[in-house]
Specification:
The structure holds 3 protein chains of 3 kinds.
Chain A (H helix, E strand, L loop, with lengths): L8 E10 L2 E11 L4 E5 L6 H9 L6 E5 L5 H6 L1 E4 L10 H11 L5 H11 L15 H14 L4 E5 L7 H16 L3 E6 L2 H7 L2 E6 L2 E7 H6 L4 H8 L5
Parallel strand pairs in A: 3-7, 3-8, 5-6, 6-7
Antiparallel strand pairs in A: 1-2, 1-4, 8-9
Helix pairs in contact in A: 3-4, 3-5, 4-5, 5-6
Chain B lengths: L2 H15 L2 H34 L5 H10 L5 H12 L14 H37 L4 H11 L1 H17 L2 H7 L9 H10 L3 H33 L1
Helix pairs in contact in B: 1-10, 2-5, 2-6, 2-7, 3-5, 4-5, 4-8, 5-7, 5-8, 7-10, 9-10
Chain C lengths: L26 H19 L14 E7 H6 L1 H13 L2 E7 L1 H9 L5 E4 L2 H9 L3 E17 L11 H10 L4 E3 L5 H12 L12 E3 L4 H11 L2 E5 H6 L6 E5 L6 E9 L9 H11 L2 H9 L1 E2 L2 E2 L2 E2 L7
Classes of the chains: A alpha/beta, B mainly alpha, C alpha/beta.
C-alpha cells in the first residue's frame, strides 16, 4: 500500500435524491483501515445507493465523501466493487481478469491473472468462457478480479443474494481472506446470519437514514434503535 | 404465374452451367456490396458505439435522424452521389462516375445508417448492463467502447449482415452511379432490371433466384461461423 | 494500481500506461482482422476488370445513349467489331434521350448517340456538342391487341391515333421525355389531339423506358407507340402485335455527336472522334445494316458525308 492510503474515510451528511424522492439522507460515519463493515437493513433502505455513493458511481445530492488522499485517480484505483450480479465480459475467465488488470496499468497481466485464479481455486476455469460458468463460479471470478487489483477498500453489494449456500460459503471465505490480506471491507446484506458471520461493525439503514452505527458484538447482542431491534426479530419494517 | 417454374429451372441451369457472364455479374455484385459493407462498418460501428455512450444536448434528435436515415431511398442516395461525382460536380476530377468504385461509395453511404443505428441500440443496451462494473474498474471511455464492441460482436455481425443484404439487393443507387454498363458496372440487380425492361421475365426472375440463393448461402455461412464461435466464447 | 499486501504475496509491478498499448482483446480478434484483410484483398484481385479510375491501360469512352438502342441489342452486335478494330472499349450508359443529353451537358460522357434530332441540334447550338452526324434510321410502329378494337390496322399513323382517341382505347406512353416520347407527342399534335385530356383514363403515362411501357401495354391489352428495334427483341408480347407501320412519318433519325471538349477539357476527343468516324464509315454502317432480329433488319444506316 505504498503511497495510496485513501483511508480513513470520513462521510458527512451524505444524501441522495432521485427526482423528488429522498433515497438517502444525512449519513455521517467514518471508515477505519482494516475493518469489516456491514451495511444492514431491509430492502429499499438505501444500502446499495450508499455503496455507490462511496465508490463514486453516483454523485451525492448533499454531503461529502472525504478520503484521506487528495489524488482522485489514486482514490479510484484503490477501490474495487463486486455487484450482486457478476458482470462478465464475453471472454474467458482469465481474460476477464486480464482486462481489469490492463485497465489499471499492470504489466504482467497474464501472471497476475493466473495468480488470482489459483488463489481462488479457479485455475481450471482459466480458459473457460466466463459466461458459460455457473452463477457461483462467475461471482467467484468477479471476486478474484477484485482481489487481483489489490484494492485498499472492497465494496460488495449483496454478493451472495442470488447464490446457493455452498457458493455463499466460498464467497464469504474469500472475503475473509481478502480482509486478512489487509483490505477494508464494506458490504451490504439483508441476511442477518451473513452479517453476524462477517461484521466487525454494523451500519443499520432504514428508509434512507443511518439509524444505528455500532460495533458488531454490541449491535447483535442488543441493538439500541427500535427499527434495528424489530429487524432482528424478523418483523417487517416500513 | 407460369413464369415461376420456368425461371426456377432456368436458374438451376444458369448456376450449374457456370455461365461466365453470370459469374462475372454475380462476382461484381458480391465485390461491390462486400467492400461497401466493410467500409461502412469500419466507420459505422465506432460511430454507433460513440453515440451510445456520449451524452450531449440534442442527442435524441441525432438518434432519431440516424434511425430515420435507415429508410434512405437508394435512388436518392444514387442521385446525391451522382451529383458529387459528376464531372460537373465537386469530386468530378477523380473520374469515379460509372465505375464500381462509385457503386461502392453509394452503397456504403446507404448502409452506414443501418449499421450505425443498430450498433447504437445494441451497445447502449449492453452499456446499461456493463456500465457500473466498467466504471468501477476505471476503464476509460475508449477502453469501454472497445470492450463493448467486442462483447456485442455477434449481434453487431447480424446488423452488418443486414446492411450487406440491403446493399446487394438495391438497384436504384447502382443504376444511377454505375450506369449498368455491360462488363463494367452491370450487377445482378441492374441486370434483372434490364431483362425486365426487355420483357424477358423468366430470365429476370431466374437471375433473381440466383441472387437470393447467393445471399442465403452467405447468411448460412455467417450463421455457422457465429454459432461455432458462440459455443466457444459464450 | 497493485501493491504488496502485508502477507507478502508478490504482485505485478506498477508501470505507466503508455508502456502498455497492446490489444487486451483476445487473440482471436486480431486473427479476425487479418482474415478480413485477406478476404478484401482476395475480393479485389479476383475481380473482373474495370476497377475504375482510368490509370489502367484500358482505353475506353463513355457513350450516353438511349434504352431503346440498348434494348434492341444493336450495341452487343456492333461494339465488339469496333473494339476489335481499335482496341477502344465503348461503355454505354443507356438512359432516356433527355437524361442522356443532361449527362452529356455535365460532361459525364464523351459521345452522345440518341434519336431526337430537334433536341440534338439545339444541343449543338447551345455549344454542348459538336460534329453532329446522322447515323441511321429505324422506324416506329404502333402495337396493340390483335383484336384491334379501335380498327387502326394499316399504315396511317395520324388516322390511327384519331381512332384510338375517339374510342378511348387504352394507350400506354413512355411519358419520360425520351426521343420515342417526343416523336409520339409530335404525332398526337399533328392529329390535333391533346392526349393529356385522357390522362389517367385511357392515356397512361408510365414515366419509364420502352420495355416497362410495353410490359404495361401487354398486361393491359393497350395500344402503344414503340420503336421497332425494342419491339423485335421484346419477349413479353402477350396479345400484342404490330398494327400500324410503314407510314413515312414513322421514321426515326438517330444522330451521334461529340461532347464539346471546349466545354469539358477531359472529354476523350481523339477516341470519341474515332468512334464517330467509324460508325459513319462504310464499315460501321455495314455493321449496323447487318444486325437483324427474326430475319428483319432493324436499323437503316443513312450517313451521307457532307462536304463543307
Amino acid at each position: 500500500m505504498a503511497d495510496a492510503k485513501i483511508l480513513p474515510l470520513s462521510v458527512e451528511g451524505l444524501g441522495y435524491r432521485a427526482g423528488d424522492i429522498s433515497v438517502l439522507d444525512g449519513a455521517t460515519f467514518d471508515l477505519a483501515p482494516g475493518s469489516r463493515n456491514i451495511v444492514l437493513g431491509p430492502n429499499g433502505a438505501g444500502k446499495s445507493v450508499l455503496l455507490r455513493l462511496l465508490h463514486g458511481l453516483l454523485k451525492p445530492s448533499a454531503g461529502h465523501v472525504n478520503w484521506s488522499n487528495p489524488d482522485a485517480l489514486a482514490v479510484r484505483r484503490a477501490q474495487a466493487m463486486v455487484f450482486q450480479r457478476p458482470v462478465m465480459l464475453r471472454r474467458t475467465a482469465r481474460e476477464n481478469i486480464e482486462f481489469a488488470l490492463h485497465v489499471s496499468g499492470v504489466r504482467n497481466i497474464r501472471t497476475a491473472a493466473d495468480l488470482a485464479l489459483e488463489r481462488a481455486g479457479l485455475i481450471r476455469l482459466a480458459e473457460r468462457p466466463a459466461r458459460l460458468c455457473s452463477g457461483g463460479e462467475q461471482q467467484r471470478i468477479a471476486l478474484a478480479r477484485a482481489w487481483a487489483l489489490q484494492p485498499e477498500v472492497l465494496f460488495l453489494d449483496e454478493p451472495t443474494a442470488s447464490l446457493d449456500p455452498a457458493a455463499t460459503k466460498i464467497i464469504e471465505e474469500s472475503v475473509q481472506a481478502m480482509h486478512r490480506g489487509g483490505t477494508t471491507i464494506v458490504m451490504t446484506t439483508h441476511d442477518l446470519g451473513q452479517a453476524k458471520r462477517l461484521a466487525d461493525r454494523v451500519l443499520f439503514l432504514n428508509h434512507g437514514r443511518l439509524v444505528e452505527d455500532a460495533p458488531a458484538a454490541a449491535f447483535f447482542a442488543q441493538p439500541t434503535s427500535p427499527e434495528a431491534a424489530a429487524f432482528m426479530r424478523g418483523e417487517l419494517l416500513w | 404465374m407460369q413464369e415461376i417454374p420456368q425461371s426456377l429451372s432456368l436458374a438451376v441451369a444458369l448456376i450449374t452451367s457456370l455461365d461466365s457472364t453470370l459469374l462475372s455479374i454475380a462476382g461484381l455484385s458480391l465485390r461491390v456490396s462486400a467492400i461497401a459493407v466493410l467500409a461502412a462498418a469500419l466507420l459505422a460501428l465506432p460511430f454507433g458505439a460513440w453515440l451510445a455512450l456520449a451524452r450531449f444536448p440534442g442527442r435524441q434528435a441525432v438518434i432519431a435522424v440516424l434511425n430515420g436515415m435507415m429508410g434512405l431511398p437508394p435512388v436518392v442516395v444514387g442521385l446525391l452521389i451522382y451529383l458529387l461525382l459528376s464531372r460537373a460536380g465537386p469530386l468530378g476530377t477523380f473520374g469515379l462516375l460509372f465505375t464500381p468504385a462509385a457503386m461502392m461509395i453509394a452503397q456504403a453511404l446507404l448502409i452506414f445508417p443501418i449499421i450505425a443505428a443498430l450498433a447504437r441500440q445494441v451497445i447502449e443496451d449492453a452499456w446499461s448492463e456493463y456500465r457500473e462494473q466498467l466504471v468501477s474498474l476505471n476503464a476509460s471511455r475508449f477502453q469501454c467502447t472497445r470492450a463493448l464492441l467486442w462483447d456485442t460482436r455477434f449481434t453487431l455481425s447480424t446488423s452488418v449482415l443486414a446492411g450487406f443484404g440491403r446493399a446487394i439487393a438495391e438497384v436504384g443507387a447502382v443504376m444511377i452511379v454505375g450506369g449498368n454498363i455491360d462488363g463494367v458496372t452491370r450487377v445482378m440487380t441492374t441486370a434483372i432490371a434490364l431483362e425486365t425492361s426487355k420483357g424477358d421475365l423468366p430470365l429476370a426472375l431466374a437471375l433473381g433466384v440466383v441472387l437470393m440463393s447467393m445471399v442465403i448461402a452467405i447468411n448460412l455461412a455467417a450463421q455457422w461461423v457465429k454459432s461455432t464461435a458462440m459455443k466457444k466464447h459464450g | 494500481m497493485v501493491n504488496h499486501s502485508p502477507s507478502g504475496d508478490p504482485q505485478g509491478v506498477v508501470i505507466s500506461s503508455n508502456a502498455r498499448n497492446l490489444l487486451v482483446a483476445p487473440a482471436s480478434k486480431s486473427r479476425f482482422l487479418v482474415a478480413a484483410l485477406i478476404g478484401m484483398t482476395v475480393l479485389n484481385i479476383a475481380s473482373p476488370g474495370g476497377s475504375g479510375t482510368a490509370f489502367a491501360k484500358e482505353r475506353f469512352i463513355v457513350v450516353a445513349s438511349t434504352t431503346s438502342m440498348q434494348d434492341s441489342g444493336l450495341f452487343g452486335h456492333i461494339l465488339p467489331i469496333f473494339k476489335a478494330k481499335t482496341g477502344i472499349d465503348v461503355r454505354v450508359v443507356a438512359q432516356g434521350t433527355g437524361q442522356a443529353l443532361a449527362l452529356a451537358k455535365k460532361g459525364d460522357a464523351d459521345v452522345v448517340l440518341v434519336h431526337d434530332k430537334v433536341a440534338e441540334l439545339k444541343f449543338v447550338e447551345e455549344g454542348f456538342g459538336i460534329d453532329r452526324r446522322d447515323v441511321m434510321v429505324n422506324d416506329f410502329v404502333i402495337v396493340g391487341p390483335k383484336s384491334d378494337p379501335a380498327k387502326v390496322s394499316g399504315n396511317d399513323v395520324i388516322g390511327a391515333l384519331k381512332k384510338i382517341e375517339a374510342s378511348k382505347s387504352p394507350f400506354t406512353s413512355r411519358g419520360d421525355k425520351s426521343g420515342t416520347h417526343a416523336a409520339e407527342l409530335r404525332h398526337w399534335k399533328a392529329a390535333d389531339i391533346d392526349p393529356q385530356i385522357g390522362k389517367g383514363t385511357w392515356y397512361r403515362e408510365t414515366g419509364s423506358g420502352m420495355g416497362p411501357t410495353l410490359n404495361t401495354a401487354s398486361a393491359m391489352n393497350a395500344y402503344s407507340f414503340t420503336d421497332r428495334g425494342t419491339w423485335l427483341s421484346f419477349k413479353n408480347r402477350g396479345e400484342l402485335s404490330v398494327l400500324v407501320e410503314s407510314d413515312t412519318k414513322l421514321f426515326n433519325q438517330y444522330g451521334v455527336m461529340l461532347v464539346n471538349p471546349a466545354k469539358h477539357a477531359h472529354v476523350k476527343k481523339e477516341m470519341g472522334i474515332q468512334f464517330i468516324d467509324w460508325i459513319t464509315s462504310p464499315e460501321g454502317q455495314a455493321a449496323i445494316a447487318a444486325y437483324k432480329i427474326e430475319g428483319q433488319q432493324l436499323f437503316f444506316p443513312n450517313y451521307i458525308a457532307q462536304r463543307k
